[in-house]
Amino acid sequence: MSTSRENEAMADIERSWLVKPSRRKAIARVAGFMAASPVAAAVAQADPRPLGEHSRALSLAEMQTAFDFEPIFFGNVPLPVYDYTAHGDGSEFTLRRNRQAYDWVDIMPERPTIPTSQVDLSSELLGVKMKFPIIVAPTAAMIPLNPEGEVGMFKAATVASNTLMILSINTSTPAAQVAPASPGGVLWGQFYPVENRTATQRVMDTYQNAGVNGIVVTVDQQASYYERTQQDRNLGGRSRTAGSGARGGDMALTGAARYRLNSGRLWYTWQYIDDMRKMVKGPLVIKGIMEPDDAKLAIEHGADAIIVSNHGGRSMDYGPSTLEVLPEIVAAVNGRIPILFDSGIRRGADIFKALALGASAVMIGRTTRWGLAAFGTAGARRLIEILQQELLQTAAAAGCTKLSDINRTTVKAHFV
After folding, report:
1. Is residue 263 a part of any domain in this protein?
2. How far does Cα 399 stand from its chain's mean position?
3. How far apart are CA 165 and CA 262, in angstroms?
4. Does residue 135 contact residue 368 with C-beta atoms inside 8 Å?
5. Which range of residues forms the domain containing residue 24?
6. Is residue 374 a contact partner of residue 366, using CB atoms and an 8 Å limit?
7. Residue 48 domain-assigned (yes or no)
8. For 60-100, how does the pLDDT look when each residue is reduced to its tens digit (9 = 90+)?
9. Is beta strand 187-191 parallel, antiparallel or unpaired with respect to 165-167?
10. Separation between Cα atoms, residue 151 and residue 154, nearest integer Å
11. 311 among known catalytic residues
12. What CATH number is attached to the domain comprising 151?
């Protein structure tokens, strides 16, 4: 058994060892080794989204491309809002393919380049005069992105060279408040079919009484299921497919909902389009055409224009990209009605490629949401103007002075 004197001597030795420089260096080395260990990293409560190389967020004045807005958007909104905007159907193969397809189209520099000041890309679409062939696509619930919401987006679209905007049926601001918010602007309305014709007429009347005369009926979101959304991945997340008020695990699913299908879809008929045509006073546009035969039928049933769209990869997984099917749809339509285009556009060069393959104009959805969420109305306007300027620069580099110069001779597709 140790004596009191022996204990005191041992304590003196331990204190001396702990404060020696060689001991402090040894502890520091061990700590550094442990901090770098993957085992320690797995145990530690690490930041799931650590800061990147930049010590601050970029300002609006520093935005150079559409991609610059996306991380600001991510930092400004709750995760469910980001997930709803960012993700697509199923495994998101179609979402990815929409973007990849632009890499499969080359811009051919066969003509002499010209100054951007000589490029005029103005056009007229169903009576709407546009300085650029760019339209703000319908996307749901913009107030969660920024308090200025749909009103701010409409103002941005109007100021940015009087760009046409299409209001989502799932707007967070009533059409009657959005339409008069930007004098001189042109607002169309988007609509999902409902079997009840009386309910359909009621929506058409609401739109048209608000001054929204162009109607875009969306038929491309048939059987989508967002597997990667935060709501579906987290316990208690709201189900997007089980119907109103249903929550994951709270109740037994019946009918199509058992297979994750929305009961309001997979019933659309051309007779319904015929009935809608009688209700719509202005242009009727069908959004979601991905087949040449459907394009022809759309014309037969009174469509004033069609939109080649797969809902930005949110419609059906393992489908083709919109850019891949665009040329054959253009051939089937043969100039009888305008063909609009969306899905995957992030750059002015993307817009140029879609126009060259036959689109009359393009629609941008996710990217405008990035701009609004990042900096409000000013951000949405800046983003639209960036895409416009990029399109001008691409057209000038390809030697195109006007919109009709952007055609199949200016690109070469290598679709796989």
Report:
1. no
2. 30
3. 27
4. no
5. 4-43
6. no
7. no
8. 999 999 999 999 999 999 988 998 899 888 888 999 999 99
9. parallel
10. 5
11. yes
12. 3.20.20.70
